[in-house]
Amino acid sequence: MDSEMTDEDLEVVQYKQTQQDRSSSTRKYVFACAVFASLNNVLLGYDVGVMSGAIIFIHEDLKITEFQEEVLVGILSVISLLGSLGGGRASDALGRKWTMGIAAIVFQIGALIMTLAPNFQVLMIGRLLAGVGIGFGVMIAPVYIAEISPTVSRGSFTSFPEIFINLGILLGYVSNYAFSGFPAHINWGIMLAVGILPSVFIEFVLCIIPESPRWLVMQNRIDEARSVLLKTIDVEAEQITGIDATVYYSPEILQTAGIQEKSKLLAATVAVGVTKTSFILVAIVLIDRVGRKPLLYVSTIGMTVCLLGLAMSLSVFKGMTLGVALAIVAICGNVAFFP
């Protein structure tokens, strides 16, 4: 009797272990797919971050006007919005996976044109193409992740695109600082060219990740959808806040506050990027423990206080050491409290 009970217990333990192993494997697989899909968002973040510093040298090298500078910076948001609308149609017709591939290719072409641009007009053409590619990619990544993730981890995985946007911004800031020592006529081109690397990696990744099972079902490819689901189902089952202005123009804001040396300006923006990336991770940890509404209240109050502090640093304490310190703290605080 004791021997029979022991055998039964052993079978139960082995079954549970097998289920746990499979569940762990499933989570790792879906995690990898979510990470790879979120690489599209690195492109947006990198473009936002790198342009904040590159525009300084573009202005110096191509002799563009302040109005042209504003158009060059701001046009990305408009074009990426239009690109996201087209991305929805493309993803329904071609699939989520290959729409991400199209987004990467279009961005590559745009980034290459910007890198080699001899004048403002050609630079704008590249910027428009890059915006279309970014719009495609940013729209489809959350959709793909939501459709491939099991219910139990869908909330966490769909937050990855936001993390990768902030990671891209940080990489853009680091790139600005790393290449700022090169001559003005080549450093901004290198800064923009580095953004091509993530898009190249995305194309290799497409050979690994599966198509969305939801899209496969929509295409009546039931067997393929079942195959993907078996790998992904866990058997245990901003813009409106003005944050883009802070991210894009942080070097110019700090310059107005009193920092004049370019290397120090770009080093300060690295601190902004580190803060933004770090606090989005903090928010992900707290969101299920504290709740959405309390975090939103704290975020709103915090951003308001930081923006008031930034206004004071640029008016009352402008040009003073206190004003510079307050501006840095206010910008870092603003991106930290951003929801």
UniProtKB/TrEMBL annotation:
Transmembrane segments: 29-59, 71-88, 100-118, 124-145, 157-174, 186-209, 265-288, 294-312, 319-338
PROSITE patterns registered for this protein in UniProt: MFS, SUGAR_TRANSPORT_1, SUGAR_TRANSPORT_2
Pfam families given in the database record: Sugar_tr
InterPro entries reported for this sequence: MFS_dom (IPR020846), MFS_sugar_transport-like (IPR005828), MFS_trans_sf (IPR036259), Myo-inositol_Transporter (IPR050814), Sugar/inositol_transpt (IPR003663), Sugar_transporter_CS (IPR005829)
Location (main, coarse): membrane
GO molecular function, one term: transmembrane transporter activity
Protein name, entry field: Major facilitator superfamily (MFS) profile domain-containing protein
Superkingdom of the organism of origin: Eukaryota
Keywords of the record: Membrane, Transmembrane, Transmembrane helix, Transport
Gene3D superfamilies per UniProt: MFS general substrate transporter like domains (1.20.1250.20)
UniProt subcellular location: Membrane
